[in-house]
Amino acid sequence: MPDELDVLERHPKTSEPGELMRPHNMTCFGCGPESPHGLHLEMYAGEGFSVDAKMPVQQWMEGGPGVIHGGILSSAFDDVMGMTPRLIGPAAVTAHLQVDFLQPIPVGKTLHLHAEILGKQRRKIYVEGVAHLGDPDRPVARANGLFVQIDVRAHFADHVENSAKAAEYLGGKPQL
Ligand SMILES: CCCCCCCCCCCC(=O)SCCNC(=O)CCNC(=O)[C@H](O)C(C)(C)COP(=O)(O)OP(=O)(O)OC[C@H]1O[C@@H](n2cnc3c(N)ncnc32)[C@H](O)[C@@H]1OP(=O)(O)O
């Protein structure tokens, strides 16, 4: 992370601590309630510049016998960490994501995910993630990511027609 950072301020219209946050997109793999095969993460704004979510580790998420697949864990981090930019302003997309897998994560447990903005420089937002199984002092995974703020309309302009929600987006509702 660079030394010279911008001052962080919560966006006046962002969710209050404890409040459920709006999904990225209704069919987002991570948080979209209408995603047919998604994680269906419900994210809550935390104190400061943080976001929390809980994810029951289900059978279909299995990688090695009885434990979570690393890609599912990475997706969960990506999505929860990718929600933190909403606390300070425009949406951001993942430019870089690094995950440390510290312990096997068993099917049947509930994974607690916490993401927090460490700093921002221009459009770059540096975010860390940590996951545990109920005891915050015993993390089972950690992540670090760089998220870059975008102009949502311009960024998705060439792709929005492929969205499951294309008709709504192209009809101007919801606003991209
Ligand atoms: C309806 C609501 C929807 C809401 C939409 C939100 C959905 C979020 C979903 C969860 C998160 C995801 O999965 S997002 C999906 C996965 N991610 C993506 O598809 C992103 C694909 N990549 C890109 O589109 C692009 O590379 C961008 C936007 C990340 C950056 O391109 P750009 O806009 O041209 O900007 P660029 O000048 O290159 O970079 C800006 C600054 O970031 C730095 N930078 C860029 N990439 C990197 C990198 N990998 N590692 C280090 N640094 C980097 C640059 O050096 C520069 O620093 P400096 O010069 O300022 O120092």
UniProtKB/TrEMBL annotation:
Coiled coil: none annotated. It comes from Gordonia alkanivorans CGMCC 6845. Pfam families: 4HBT. It is a peripheral membrane protein. InterPro entries: HotDog_dom_sf, THEM4/THEM5_acyl-CoA_thioest, Thioestr_dom. CDD domains: PaaI_thioesterase. The keyword Repressor does not apply. The lineage of its organism: Bacteria, Bacillati, Actinomycetota, Actinomycetes, Mycobacteriales. Residues 66-136 form the Thioesterase domain. It catalyses: (9Z)-octadecenoyl-CoA + H2O = (9Z)-octadecenoate + CoA + H(+); dodecanoyl-CoA + H2O = dodecanoate + CoA + H(+); (5Z,8Z,11Z,14Z)-eicosatetraenoyl-CoA + H2O = (5Z,8Z,11Z,14Z)-eicosatetraenoate + CoA + H(+); tetradecanoyl-CoA + H2O = tetradecanoate + CoA + H(+). It is found in: Cell projection, Ruffle membrane; Cytoplasm; Membrane. Keywords: Apoptosis, Cell membrane, Cell projection, Cytoplasm, Fatty acid metabolism, Hydrolase, Lipid metabolism, Membrane, Transit peptide. This is Acyl-coenzyme A thioesterase THEM4.
